[in-house]
Every structure is written in C-alpha cells, then in structure tokens.
Design goal:
The chain has 428 residues and is α/β, with parallel strands linked by helices. Strands 2, 3, 4, 6, 7, 8, 13, 14 and 15 form a nine-stranded mixed beta sheet that branches. The chain has a four-stranded antiparallel beta sheet with strand order 10-11-9-12, covered by helices on one side. Strands 1-5 form a two-stranded antiparallel sheet. Helix 8 runs antiparallel to helix 9. It is globular. Bound molecules: (2S)-amino(hydroxy)ethanoic acid (HGY) and manganese (II) ion (3 copies).
C-alpha cells in the first residue's frame, strides 16, 4: 500500500460509532457513584478497573502497551519509520465526583477507535502513532490538575511535591500509587519526564464543555488556545465558640470571613474588565461544622482562570489583598494562603491547526476556531510538543455533571477528524 496516496482510501473512514458508545457506557460502570453519574478518582479500585479495560482495548487494537511509574499509559502503533518521533494523542479517564461519562473518555476511547479506523482503511503511518491515557487530569485526590501530563512535561516542583503529598485521608501519593500497582520501589518521579522531542505533535479530542458548537450548529471546534488556570487554598482561623452565648462584637467568625472572601473572588473577577475572566469557590469547609458552633476554622479553595495570564494574575493578587484585609476587619487569622498552581495559557501549533482544518474540510464538516476555557492535558503537552485540540459539541455545554452528553454522530465526526489529522501528521 503506497503511502503517497493517503487521502483516497482515507476519505471513506469507517467508524464503529455504536461500538464506541457501548465502550463509553461500559467504562462508565467503573464508578464510585450511581449511574448516570460517574465518580472515578485516581488510583481507586474503580480507576484500576477502568485502566485495565482501556489497556485491553489498546491491546485489541494491536497497540503495544506500556505504563510509566505514575500510571500514564501509552499504546503505540509503530509506523514504517519507527525511530522517528511519534505523533501522540490521548486524554484522561478520571472523573470528578458525580460527573459525566464523556469528559476525557471521548479522547481516550475515541483515539483507540481512530487508530482502528486507520487500520480498517489500510493506512500505514510513517511516524509511530501513540495514544496516551494520562494518569489523572482532575485535581480531585491530590489537589493538582493534570498531574500526569505536568510530570510528563518535566515539572520538577510537582515531582518534589508529590513525594510528600497526602490525600484527605492522609494517604501518601506514593502509597496510593503503589496500591494501584505503580511507583514500585521508586521515590524519584523524574523518570516520568519525557525526553525532549519525544513527540512531533500531540492532538487531543475532547467534548467542548461549553455551549457554542451546539448553539451554532457547528460540528467541530478547532482550539487555538487553552485558558490559564490558577487554584488557591485559603484557611481562616477564629476563636469559635457558642453560637448563642458569644455576642457579636466578641466574635471572629472564620466561616463569615471565608464567605466574604468568596464574594470578593466574584467581585475581583467581574471587575477584570473582560468576560474571559472567571472564578469560583468550589470547596468551602467549616470546622467544627455544627449549626450552633461559631466556625473556628474555614478552608476554601478558589479556581480562577483567564485566557490572558496578566489579567488572571491580577485577580489572584487582589484575592490575596482581600484575604489580608478580611483578617484586619474581622480579627481572624490567615493560617494559610497558598497558590497551588498558576499556569500560563497554551497556544496551539499553527501546523497542527492547519492539519485539523484540512481534515475537517476533507470530511465536509463545519468547524470553528475557538479557545478552551477548561484546561486539559494538552495545556502541558504544549510545553513539550506542537499541540492541537479537537472539540465536539456536547449537550447544552454541560460537563462535570451527570447530564453531560455527546451524540454518537458528533463523536463519530470527532473520531474521523482525529484519524485524518493523525494520518496527515504521521506522514510529515
Ligand atoms: O477543570 C478543568 O478545566 C478540567 O476539566 N479538569
Ligand atoms: Mn474535567
Ligand atoms: Mn477533561
Ligand atoms: Mn488548608
């Protein structure tokens, strides 16, 4: 099969869309919350079952499978020139509590189906193609998003932090990894770092997690940039006490301090001057958590993002100033103000954008250039390889909740665009 005519047989790409849907449904059963929600947290037994399921599908697709010490999983299809840098694709299968079954999963199972589509069409890549299942994209267990792809992109600070990190049950990262069969007699996580030039390109297929494509009736989103996320952890402490007996002038209520900071987050975000600045407080824990006890401790976690790094950093600074002001006006102690991550945005590579645009055109699909407001493993893969993302519409833009949904047709379109894009990039 001559590789100089990659497009003729590729225009009739056959996607087993029903098979993909069945796999998505089956994978969603590995969950710690009842259907239709999905909860699948890093290194839990459901995560291990899901990993085994995906590794099996990689094997059935004829990929050679390997895993690194933190459980990033790689499925490789060697091309005619196996020593060349591979073209990679992939996403994640971990799911935050009570979320949906498409976030991340479409980019893993859809990537395996894209490889099957290329194999069915008789295509033979020049460069190897590699699917990556990133070990954990969600921040759920150890509080840091894109843990696997951050390490792959060479984050020394994360490698150091993880060797000391513990989850909310006080289980260390390394013990949790070992319970899932990883990090065997390993303390140094830098073995995960990718060698420079490992990949010639990285492309991720993902649901949009926003309403634009569906609202505008467009089949494919071609991502030009990924917004810059930052997350903060803040603790306030007060004297607490009896909710009835302590008079108001004598209180330093840690819970109300946290509530005031939460509203300050919203104020600073809205004052940024741009609709692209967002922020919320997704975690607010009060101690002792009794109705008739004035909170003596409040723990809040803040997520704020923007496609403009400067503007986002400005909001982070103002939140810090507000936290300090609140300690003065309320007489509480600011026992913790930590910036967990304050990442720069990522730009997609022009060459990969071009390959995705050509693919959508050849498939007669409508497409739109757009930014990703959610972060993805691509945000970190962009640090070590030319990056691109393919979005497909999702129902009302819902995500991170059980109503998350993508149609078989939209997933099939996404798989075709991914298959054609990988084929093109593998011939370069
Ligand atoms: O939060 C995010 O943007 C990603 O979906 N974890
Ligand atoms: Mn997510
Ligand atoms: Mn995701
Ligand atoms: Mn804390």
């Amino acid at each position: 099969y001559a590789i100089h005519e990659p497009h003729s047989s590729l225009s009739s790409l056959l996607v087993d869309a029903q098979g993909l849907q069945n796999q998505i449904d089956e994978l969603s059963t590995f969950s710690d919350s009842p259907a239709p929600s999905v909860t699948r947290v890093l290194y839990t037994d459901k995560d291990v079952l899901a990993r085994r399921y995906v590794k099996n599908l990689m094997g059935l697709a004829g990929l050679s499978v390997r895993e690194d010490t933190v459980g990033n999983i790689f499925g490789r299809w060697d091309g005619n020139e196996p020593e060349l840098a591979a073209v990679a694709t992939g996403s994640h299968i971990d799911a935050i509590p009570y979320s949906g079954k498409y976030d991340g999963v479409v980019g893993v199972l859809g990537a395996i189906e894209a490889i099957n589509v290329l194999k069915r069409s008789g295509f033979k890549p020049k460069r190897p193609l590699e699917i990556i299942l990133f070990t954990s994209e969600e921040p759920t267990r150890f509080g840091i998003g894109c843990l696997g792809s951050r390490l792959l992109s060479g984050s020394e600070s994360l490698a150091n932090a993880l060797s000391k990190a513990t989850d909310s049950q006080n289980i260390s990262f390394l013990d949790a990894a070992r319970s899932a069969g990883y990090a065997k007699d390993v303390d140094d996580l830098s073995s995960v770092f990718l060698k420079k030039g490992t990949y010639s390109a990285f492309v991720e297929l993902h649901i949009e997690q926003g309403p634009i494509l569906e609202a505008e009736g467009i089949s494919i989103g071609i991502v030009t940039a990924i917004a810059a996320p930052a997350s903060l952890k803040v603790d306030f402490e007060g004297n607490g006490g009896h909710a009835g007996a302590v008079l108001m002038p004598n209180r330093n209520d840690a819970g109300l301090a946290a509530a005031e900071l939460a509203l300050a987050v919203e104020k600073h975000v809205l004052e940024s001057g741009s609709i692209d600045t967002v922020g919320t407080v997704g975690i607010l824990e009060l101690h002792p958590g009794a109705i008739n006890s004035i909170p003596s401790k409040a723990h809040i976690e803040i997520d704020t993002r923007d496609i403009d790094e400067e503007r986002r950093n400005n909001v982070v600074e103002k939140i810090h100033q507000s936290a300090i002001r609140i300690t003065e006006t309320r007489g509480v102690k600011l026992s913790e103000f930590s910036i967990i991550n304050q990442d720069p945005p990522a730009l997609s590579s022009e060459a990969v954008i071009k390959a995705m645009e050509t693919a959508t055109r050849e498939l007669n699909l409508t497409s739109k250039l757009m930014i990703s407001r959610a972060y993805h493993d691509s945000l970190f893969m962009a640090r070590v390889s030319p990056m691109g993302m393919i979005f497909i519409p999702c129902y009302k833009g819902y995500s991170h909740k059980p109503e998350e949904f993508a149609s078989i047709q939209d997933m099939s379109n996404g798989v075709k665009v991914l298959a054609l894009t990988l084929a093109k990039l593998s011939l370069e």
